[in-house]
Amino acid sequence: xxxxxxxxxxxDELIRSSMEKGMEKGRxxxxxxxxxKGMEKGMEKGMEKGIKIGMEKGKEEMARNLLAHGVPxxxxxxxxGLPPEKIQGLIS
Length: 92
Prior knowledge:
By secondary structure, the protein is mainly α. It has 3 helices and no strands. Helix 1 (5-68) packs antiparallel against helix 2 (73-80). The longest helix is centred in the middle third of the chain and has 64 residues, at 5-68.
């Protein structure tokens, strides 16, 4: 089948344009998915870190309360899972 030259150029341009649009859309979708995945991973890591910090603060608060009630330092260290040096630092 013969296609006149000017129509072939238009067809080629249409194909090129369509391919560029498709590639651009693919890039945009890829970027969106990457950002979403990165944010999810960041939130997960942030939550883990927050929980860890919260648990540490809870242990420190428990140690302060036990110190205020006159519980010996070695018992607090074993009960709270904190090193005695850390508990000593809570005294001041």
